[in-house]
Amino acid sequence: MLTRIAIVTGMVNKVMGHLVSERDFVDSVAAYCAEKGARFTDSRREVALIIARSEKPIGAYDILEQLGKILVNPKPPTVYRAIDFLLENHFIHKIESMNAFIACRTDHRHSGSQFMICNECGKVIETHLCSLPSALKDAAEKKSFTPLTWSVEVRGLCSDCS
Predict the structure, then answer these.
(1) For the segment 107-150, what is each residue's pLDDT rounded down to a tens digit?
(2) What is the pLDDT of residues 8-32, one digit of tens each?
(3) Which candidate, 67, 66, 58, 65, places its Cα nearest to that of 100?
(4) How far apart are CA 114 and CA 117, in angstroms?
(5) Structural domains of the chain sorted by starting position, each given as residue range(s) with its CATH number in brackets
(6) Which of 63, 103, 121, 156 has the greatest number of CB atoms lying within 10 Å of its CB?
(7) Is the pTM of this model over 0.85?
(8) Kindly report the CA angle at 96 between 1 and 98, in degrees rounded to 5?
(9) What is the C-alpha R_g of the chain?
């Protein structure tokens, strides 16, 4: 079972042994959009950059507040449309328990994401088990259910806080 891990920590992120800046993240999103013919508007770019720069998962209204420092009087629909685009194209993840978002720092075309969330400092460690664990797969088969994507959040303490 292949595992990929990315520690989401703001200005520079370590991904599979490589350092990736938030600008590199946004540039990779732009390149992907250009290749696929998707529109990467200025507001989408700025929202992606705000999320990539965030040291912890960031909520929509915090994104809106930061976007207001860049754009004149942005409205919530601008942020929500950008978030929807970034989610639909797998550039960001939603941390459901926090109703907040983080940049996907690995191949954004994976089908399963797992997040280890520190209860003390809020750090999120993104990991990708590239196949559904067998116990979950067996349970789905028994219920005649076909998983398409999956996400798991595990709360605990990171190495800095334990």
Answers:
(1) 556 667 789 999 999 889 888 777 788 998 999 999 999 988 78
(2) 433 334 443 333 688 888 888 899 8
(3) 58
(4) 10
(5) 3-156 (1.10.10.10)
(6) 103
(7) no
(8) 120
(9) 16
